[in-house]
Amino acid sequence: MSVRALAVATGYSVATVSRALRDDPKVGAATRKSIAAAAEKMGYQSNPYVGQMMSSLRRRRGSTFHGNMAIVFRSGTSGMITDLRAQQCLEGMRKRAGELGYILDEFDLTNFQPKALQRIISHRGIRGILAYTPSFFGAKVRFPLALDSFASVAYGWGLWYPQLDCVRADFFQMIRIALHHACHRFQEKVMAIWDMKTDQTAHGAARAAFLAHHPAGPAAASKLFLPSQNLTEAAFAKMVKKTGAECLLLTSSLTPPSWLSQYIPEEKWIWFRDPGAVPHFGRIDPQNALGGRWAVNLLAAKIQMNQLGVAPACQNVMVPPRWIPGK
Question: Is residue 2 over pLDDT 60?
């Protein structure tokens, strides 16, 4: 027995019968009593699951549901759209979200006012936010959206306020692995050129690893860890001559000056990005795509916990790097 059949039998509309069976006060008491008596006589029984579904649909009426996860990033001054590392991470996020059955919306904060974006995200029924801010975007990050009603995960080394669960590249292990392979061949004759702003954002992890694992010891190693900012040929040449350095670790953001290979050949460089066809001793792959996948995994778990009313503690997940021999 369906609501429609009951409506035909009683002579009322389907909407009126449906409201009467829910004991809606908008339907007169006499009508409700008459429909209830007819339902009992004809053996009608309501399906609570259908009722819950229809109630949910009525609550959503007037809104459009496009997905339940969103990536929020800022590309204005970061070069994120063309940066290979960012694209690898975003692709990992997109692929993993699809595998888990989530639709993933993407929002660039440079194109929206925070209040307008908040309304759009709420209107679309989004339940989880992936805040993408890699270390090279800046150290202090205040997220512009209110996250009280969302599950949220950040990707990158930003100092987030409010505190968010984070998935991060493991700079300490990157340097440790690079030194392991470099020192096996070059012993103590290894130096590094590093972006100190990035390292400050990552709580000094790269420099700390270099000093901790360099075979020459922390005091000597501190002189072999050179800032990429304001690097001059004269200073570099002097350091190479003084230390006899034969191997060079290069920060991912560095565009090598033309004179660099005159002092240490390119085939003795270790890159922290893909150098393409350039000869090199090896490179460290930060596994950006894997980091993107892990960020989605963590966010999916938080969405489910929120639905169950569980409040998990914030956590940081470090993505393991891998060594790739050079050409």
Answer: yes
How much is the mean pLDDT over the chain?
Answer: 83
Q: What integer pLDDT is reported at residue 82 of this predicted model?
A: 56
Q: Write out pLDDT tens, residues 134-183.
A: 544 445 556 677 777 788 898 887 656 667 788 989 999 999 999 999 99
Report d(CA 141, CA 164) in Å as an integer: 11
The CA distances from residue 52 to 58, 87, 232, 259, 303, in Å, are 10, 41, 69, 71, 21
CATH topology of domain 171-285: Rossmann fold (3.40.50)
Which residues have CB under 8 Å from 214's CB, separation 6+?
A: 179, 183, 188, 190, 220, 221, 224
SS3 200: helix
CATH hierarchy code of domain 69-170+290-321: 3.40.50.2300
Q: Is the pLDDT of residue 62 over 50?
A: no
Rounded distance between C-alpha atoms, residue 239 and residue 226, angstroms: 10
Same fold: 69-170+290-321 with 171-285: yes
Task: Tell me which fold the domain 3-60 belongs to.
Answer: 434 Repressor (Amino-terminal Domain) (1.10.260)
Domain ranges of the chain: 3-60, 69-170+290-321, 171-285
Q: Which two tokens stand for residue 92?
A: 């990992």
Q: How far apart are CA 327 and CA 324, in angstroms?
A: 10
Residue whose C-alpha is closest to residue 147's, from 129, 133, 120: 129
| pTM of the model as a whole | 0.72
Residue 40 binned pLDDT confidence (cut-offs 50, 70, 90): confident
3-10 vs 29-42: helix crossing angle, rounded to 10: 110
Exposed, middle or buried: residue 63 (CB in 10 Å: 0-12, 13-18, 19+)?
exposed
